[in-house]
Amino acid sequence: MNYHLKQIPERTTKPRTTGFTMVMDKGLSIREVEDMLEISGDYIDIVKLGWATSFVTKNLKEKLAVYKAAGIPVYLGGTLFEAFIVRDQFSDYQKVLDEFGLEYAEVSDGSIVLDHDRKCEYISTLAKQVTVLSEVGSKDAEKIIPPYKWIEQMQTELDAGAWKVIGEARESGNVGLFRDSGEVRQGLVEEILTKIPEEKILWEAPQKEQQVWFIKLIGSNVNLGNIAPNEVIPLETIRLGLRGDTFDYFLDKV
Amino acid sequence: MNYHLKQIPERTTKPRTTGFTMVMDKGLSIREVEDMLEISGDYIDIVKLGWATSFVTKNLKEKLAVYKAAGIPVYLGGTLFEAFIVRDQFSDYQKVLDEFGLEYAEVSDGSIVLDHDRKCEYISTLAKQVTVLSEVGSKDAEKIIPPYKWIEQMQTELDAGAWKVIGEARESGNVGLFRDSGEVRQGLVEEILTKIPEEKILWEAPQKEQQVWFIKLIGSNVNLGNIAPNEVIPLETIRLGLRGDTFDYFLDKV
Amino acid sequence: MNYHLKQIPERTTKPRTTGFTMVMDKGLSIREVEDMLEISGDYIDIVKLGWATSFVTKNLKEKLAVYKAAGIPVYLGGTLFEAFIVRDQFSDYQKVLDEFGLEYAEVSDGSIVLDHDRKCEYISTLAKQVTVLSEVGSKDAEKIIPPYKWIEQMQTELDAGAWKVIGEARESGNVGLFRDSGEVRQGLVEEILTKIPEEKILWEAPQKEQQVWFIKLIGSNVNLGNIAPNEVIPLETIRLGLRGDTFDYFLDKV
């Protein structure tokens, strides 16, 4: 840190298993990646190339090389996995992971109907090739999954070999874990936490209020995802009780 | 594309007459322009320097040179045209176009009252100098133009020499084609399309939901404008059915 | 300016005492700072490193050097001052200002309870070391300070040695001077202006509608703050009557 302040909550350091931050890159240029890493690379644990943006992004290999040089793993958004699955191109997807030297992958069913046993098979097959993040929750605001189902799916996906399970939110933060308004489905989150260890969960929380809510519930070292590149530094200050939103909260605790 | 996926809607390629994307640059630096072009230049068909931002932007000539080298035409926002007209400086405006080597220009009346015949005269005069885009629709949310008038104005402006007509939305997407809430005036758009060929129209649609709506109505190769620089890649995935919003839609079609 | 337009409101130039623009940098990289200064440096009078972002920003000294070379003063957000005060580390805060060569500082009580006499003592102590901006208004949307109190506090803080007083808004623009919805507390602002000279006030106004409102009330050369880096050019056009929002307004006046 740049100077000394007393009573700052302890933060985990890299390689983190809790307290990690997943950034959503939805089309950064190489220089923009360099800029983000220069200023906030220490606080970025993993990067998702949002949905299927990798399909149309120029200089993809050069960009992946920049992340690799910084020791930051990258995975392709779950929608891309689904795009391959729905076209019956799973083996092509596996080749893409190899060709681009990717060591992480996401398995999801936010936009397709996928039998849950079949989803778990994909997880366990891919887990032999890469580290798998699996995602629970639909991108369709109409599809409300009850809490016991979230828990059941998360548990079986972890059992199938997922490294972590992701709670869905999209870039906008208004589906899955959240209501249309962006408000957290609090009962859902609290019920999940009674059964699934929090270090196994990556909560997508793109909006500041959502990040604050999770940090107050779980602490500085909650795993948060879908963070926009220019919100990494602000998020870090919220984790440390150094922004108005959590200022009081941590003073009482540390 | 970076890998192969089956059943992807066909996209037009440059030089496009349909399916083109107009980006709004409201003050990018030269390096930011370079970054945008590096990552998404193939998907950008024309750039608008929003409203009168060109008046206060430093290094304007150097910036225009970067776009020119990439083969991407640039035009100055219609509000600037209006600023010259309202000050009775039309010939000065023509000189500005020359001095900066601009080959496209916008004629609009979103912020001024301009007799429609007079507007068409400006279009036909400028059409001898540059390629003209003319814009229909007011920036004033209170001024509702009925559909028959939109059609009449669009047609006479095309007859006067406009290359394409633009449906107004502003940077925010809440006037002209859209309601205060950003919702599309669907009846208006559908009625326009019964009379004006869609390849002659450039729909300003800055919000994602607006882009999705037009793509579902008209297809992947609809002309869309006022796209923010960091939304070019996301828009391209929506056009291709590779983001949640149009994922199902195109699968049924291709 | 890049070309000549008649009837443009006169703008102050650097060093400005009115009409100045304060930008909020919440974690720009060095290259992003360079880009912002290249394109809009002439319109930026002072930069705030938002709240305590300076605590976690890498290469802080190098970044400050870029601002210094451009002749643009930088200060650390008031929340950082409060973080030191609440930990009883005021003298450490003074050392931080020295160590980083800062010539401006903010004194605020947006997130802490601070006796007002004590606040004024901090202002007068710091005023011997640096130029002080003091801020009035809470970050807590529930805490409504009545107008007479705003005025009393602003006046005593100026008397204590503050160079300018800041009206609080946060990055989001929905507390302090503004209602939850972002709407200006008009009566409050107008009452303040009956007592405090407007050149002594810096109004935080991150949202476009807020900027427009202040410009229409006070004029092109109102002091505005919490401007996002990519909104500096747009703001400049609003000040000059060259965006739809103030287009008519200034035509009648100039």
Give the secondary structure arrangement, pairings included.
The structure is a homotrimer of 254-residue chains.
Chain A: E1 21-25, H1 30-40, E2 46-49, H2 53-56, H3 60-69, E3 74-76, H4 78-86, H5 90-99, E4 104-107, H6 116-127, E5 131-136, H7 147-159, E6 164-167, H8 186-195, E7 201-204, H9 208-218, E8 224-227, H10 232-239, H11 244-253
Parallel strand pairs in A: 1-2, 1-8, 2-3, 4-5, 5-6, 6-7, 7-8
Helix pairs in contact in A: 1-3, 7-8
Can you describe what's shown?
- Chain A has 254 residues and is of the alpha/beta class.
- Chain A has a single domain, classed as TIM Barrel (Alpha-Beta Barrel), CATH 3.20.20.
- Chain A contains eleven helices and eight strands.
- The first copy, chain A, has helices spanning 30-40, 53-56, 60-69, 78-86, 90-99, 116-127, 147-159, 186-195, 208-218, 232-239, 244-253, and strands at residues 21-25, 46-49, 74-76, 104-107, 131-136, 164-167, 201-204, 224-227.
- Chain A has an eight-stranded parallel sheet with strand order 3-2-1-8-7-6-5-4.
- In chain A, helix 1 (30-40) packs parallel to helix 3 and helix 7 runs parallel beside helix 8.
- Chain A is globular, with a radius of gyration of 18 Å.
- The two termini of chain A are 18 Å apart.
- Chains in contact: A-B, A-C, B-C.
- The interface between B and C is medium-sized, with 35 and 30 residues.
